[in-house]
């Protein structure tokens, strides 16, 4: 049993003010793999006080010196990548090969994107001959991160905040905290000044709410469910702190009749990746009617060919979902879908041969319509819904008929149509024809998918205030 009860506060590992043990469950076995402690108000206050005391000195540190420390952290992260992959695989169930390549790799990718953005980033600019515009760190930032892509989200928050000159208190998901505790070791090894980075474990109703309400916290950056994002916004309202939210999604993947022959297969695989636990997953496949029946057949083939297994095994497959709570939620939504639509692959229960662990069968529903629960609610499991459309206008209307607006997808060989539809979709990211986004591209959404953007220069701006100064003499 791994014991990780301490928090990282003011440059040191410290015991919680009062012990509140919580088991970390390995989702492949349903057995405890580690124990942490949940923080309380005294721990939150200590971490915020450390960040506040460190802020003035860190904010005054030249940007190039801050970047130099971040580069040290980057090198440490890469050199200890195998440890990070093991921690992520154990805590949230990503198969070890996927954890090493994709989960750990996401952190490396985003670090590189920030370094590129910082090369040309201007913290000062001349607006006129006598007016200067300054970009300055917002202050102490509470960073609340999820369990589904741990290092993806930790890096997207910690790196730009520290690069901007902010000091931070990180509260990772209590469901998957081991990777963030390891990240704190990396920060300590890199030699950041004490108080610049702090970590307190806790749950949303505890440390998460305490950070959101705290008068000495200037900003909250949160990734998680829309429900939790609303609660955080309300908790933060009394102090009028900045709140940046990256929330849920219900991505529409529009496949026109002239799409390439691999479009359906690519979309189904993307939906099932990470066991469906990605907010930007293309979980709604909208198919032009002439290709609809063939698309269903292909999606069924992909589902049936998608192997499910324990995270410790090598190879390409999907692992369990993260917890019993998530497993039960997905099972209920699959059962709801069976009452609403036509089940063509998968279904309730565990895959054959897996009697323990939070394993979900890759599932496909056909003949879905937007008045159904499975078309509107984020399932967050390997569940794909397919529905037909007859015209471009209808496809856009179906895609936009959702409270979410994070990521949508368009597949067509007609470039004019592809660009036209991309403009009409109400989402923050539109991936077309399987072309991934560039390093440093802004990640974020419209509507109930949140506000703000993460990654690259846009991600840096989230942690900066803009100050205009008149009468600035020429230097």
TrEMBL record:
Belongs to the aldehyde dehydrogenase family. This is aldehyde dehydrogenase (NAD(+)). Its EC number is 1.2.1.3. CDD domains: ALDH_CddD_SSP0762 (cd07138). GO terms for molecular function: aldehyde dehydrogenase (NAD+) activity. It catalyses: an aldehyde + NAD(+) + H2O = a carboxylate + NADH + 2 H(+). It comes from the Bacteria. Residues 13-469 form the Aldehyde dehydrogenase domain. Pfam families: Aldedh. Keywords: Oxidation, Oxidoreductase. PROSITE patterns: ALDEHYDE_DEHYDR_CYS.
């Amino acid at each position: 049993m791994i014991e990780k009860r301490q928090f990282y506060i003011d440059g040191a590992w410290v015991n919680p003010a009062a012990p509140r043990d919580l088991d970390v469950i390995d989702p492949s076995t349903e057995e405890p793999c580690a124990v942490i402690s949940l923080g309380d108000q005294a721990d939150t206050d200590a971490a915020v006080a450390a960040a506040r005391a460190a802020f003035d000195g860190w904010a005054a540190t030249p940007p190039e010196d801050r970047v130099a420390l971040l580069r040290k952290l980057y090198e440490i992260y890469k050199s200890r990548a195998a440890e990070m992959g093991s921690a992520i695989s154990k805590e949230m169930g990503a198969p070890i090969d996927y954890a090493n390549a994709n989960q750990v790799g996401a952190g490396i990718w985003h670090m590189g994107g920030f370094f590129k953005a910082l090369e040309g980033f201007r913290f000062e600019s001349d607006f006129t001959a006598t007016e200067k515009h300054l970009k300055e760190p917002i202050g102490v930032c509470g960073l609340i991160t999820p369990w589904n892509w741990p290092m993806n989200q930790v890096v997207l928050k910690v790196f730009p905040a520290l690069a901007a000159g902010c000091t931070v208190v990180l509260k990772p998901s209590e469901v998957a905290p081991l990777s963030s505790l390891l990240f704190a070791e990396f920060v300590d090894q890199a030699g950041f000044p004490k108080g610049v980075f702090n970590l307190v474990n806790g749950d949303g109703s505890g440390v998460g709410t305490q950070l959101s309400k705290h008068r000495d916290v200037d900003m909250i950056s949160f990734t998680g469910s829309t429900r939790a994002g609303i609660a955080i916004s309300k908790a933060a309202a009394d102090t009028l702190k900045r709140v940046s939210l990256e929330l849920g999604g219900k991505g529409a993947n529009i496949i026109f009749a002239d799409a390439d022959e691999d479009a359906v297969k690519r979309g189904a695989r993307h939906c099932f990746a990470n066991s469906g636990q990605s907010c930007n997953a293309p979980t709604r496949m909208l198919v032009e009617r002439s290709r609809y029946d063939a698309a269903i057949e292909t999606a069924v083939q992909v589902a049936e060919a998608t192997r499910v297994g324990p995270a410790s095994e090598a190879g390409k497959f999907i692992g369990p979902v993260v917890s019993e709570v998530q497993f039960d939620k997905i099972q209920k939504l699959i059962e709801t879908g069976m009452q609403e639509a036509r089940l063509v692959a998968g279904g309730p229960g565990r895959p054959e041969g897996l009697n323990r662990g939070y394993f979900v069968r890759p599932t496909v529903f056909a003949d879905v319509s937007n008045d159904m629960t499975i078309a509107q609610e984020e399932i967050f499991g390997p569940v794909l819904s397919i529905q037909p459309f007859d015209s471009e206008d209808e496809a856009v209307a179906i895609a936009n008929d959702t409270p979410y607006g994070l990521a949508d997808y368009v597949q067509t060989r007609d470039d004019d149509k592809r660009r036209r539809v991309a403009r009409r979709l109400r989402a923050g990211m539109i991936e077309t024809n399987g072309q991934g986004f560039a390093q440093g591209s802004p990640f974020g959404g419209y509507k109930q998918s949140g506000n703000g953007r993460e990654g690259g220069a846009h991600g840096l701006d989230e942690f900066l205030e803009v100050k205009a100064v008149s009468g600035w003499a020429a230097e």
